[in-house]
Amino acid sequence: MKVTNVYLCGLGVFQPPVTDAGQAARRGEYSPAAYLENRLTGVCIAGDVSPPEMAVRAARQALSRAALDPARIDLVLHASIHFQGPEMWLPGPYIQREIVGTPAPAFEIRLGCNGVFAALEIAAGHLAVAAAARTVLVTTAENLGSPLIDRWNSAPGFILGDAGSALLLDRDEGFARLRAVGSVAVPEVESLYRGGEPLYPPLVRQGRTIDMRERAEYFRDNVMSLTDAAELRTRARLDLIERTLDEADRKLVDMTRLICGNSAAYMVQQDLLEPLGIAMERTTWQFGRGIGHTGASDQLLSLNHLLVTGQLAAGDHLLLFGGAPATMSCAVLEILDVPAWARV
């Protein structure tokens, strides 16, 4: 999707303290073999702070940094992947009440780790066609300290972290411009994260926990080889990146940095670096390896890190990529100015 007149005017993060992965391996919480193979060094752990509370804190920071009146917000989009609060309750209206408090609607997005990209697509359409639209608030947050999940070992190639992030999108001005955003489905691998588990009843009623390795093994034994699945996803990934860059009127060589999800070094190497022919140093992996995979917050946390550490300048272009098994997403940003809050 080629985008015009959509700007990033605010960015906020809630990044909990980091627990050292090496120490966790020595305590027996994290597989020593995985620690050596994945090269991940730490993970953010939020304790008892709920995801909606993290989202609210990140949104408040975004508003403060942007010096924006929350009454200007006319749409709230909240992305999530896991437990957000009481069953049969929605986090979006809570975030809306805490931050906005006007009749502006709040929608929840469930697209796994790509939730923020889906929010970008929805926000871009909203700002383009809604006559009175001015600003959209995008939030996402996760606390993966659930008894259903072993954050250290449930997902091969990942340590599952906690964090919240928020983005303010405006139709008039901002420190960065969204040039293009898009997603693509790979339906053949939908069951990779489902495995052989029934759609009902929920795991908690079965007395089981989430084991992504077990699900992948079922997929490999009953659907297709993991090699074939990887080839399908690689073709879709490269086609999506090429299309998004074309819609942004830019080339891969124009991208100052590649912002990707936080995963093991070998996954980034196989999925992105080798197919694209770029070096690890152009990515945000070095930062991401120290905070864990935080659901849909990975890319926004990395963008914040690049800004506050002085690694970006006006005129830089960023390629953002996110990939859940059956859906992949991509966006191109242009930095127009380094905001004052990042220069302190």
UniProtKB/TrEMBL annotation:
Keywords: Acyltransferase, Transferase. InterPro entries: ACP_syn_III_C, ACP_syn_III_N, Thiolase-like. GO terms for biological process: fatty acid biosynthetic process; secondary metabolite biosynthetic process. The keyword tRNA-binding does not apply. Residues 107-173 form the Beta-ketoacyl-[acyl-carrier-protein] synthase III N-terminal domain. Residues 245-334 form the Beta-ketoacyl-[acyl-carrier-protein] synthase III C-terminal domain. It comes from the Bacteria. The keyword Transferase applies. Gene3D superfamilies: 3.40.47.10. One of its GO terms (molecular function) is 3-oxoacyl-[acyl-carrier-protein] synthase activity. This is 3-oxoacyl-[acyl-carrier-protein] synthase-3.
